[in-house]
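Retro notes (design track)

What went well: tokenization of the new backbones is finally stable.
What didn't: we kept losing track of which sequence belonged to which structure.
Fix going forward: every design gets posted as structure first, then sequence, in one message. First example under the new rule, 79 residues:
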């Protein structure tokens, strides 16, 4: 991953999406519109230059880059 000056909010939304298993549930938990969460996630992926999720049916599944990012996000947000 390249050095991007990562946006904390983007990382937090990614973390919630990963924990909830989807954008709709994450948006509900965060009290935000689905489009807001989806846009923030797309911006994070663009910043990183990597896809963090793949779609399998109706569910989002972490890619290898997504699993690595989740590991780092867990360390940050579980402190």
């Amino acid at each position: 991953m390249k050095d991007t000056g990562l946006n904390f909010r983007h990382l937090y939304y990614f973390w919630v999406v990963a924990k909830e298993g989807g954008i709709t549930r994450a948006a509900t938990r965060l009290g935000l519109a689905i489009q807001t969460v989806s846009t923030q996630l797309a911006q994070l992926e663009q910043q990183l230059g990597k896809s963090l999720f793949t779609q399998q049916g109706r569910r989002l599944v972490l890619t290898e880059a997504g699993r690595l990012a989740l590991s780092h996000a867990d360390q940050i947000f579980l402190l």
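Added context from the reviewer: The longest strand covers residues 53-56.
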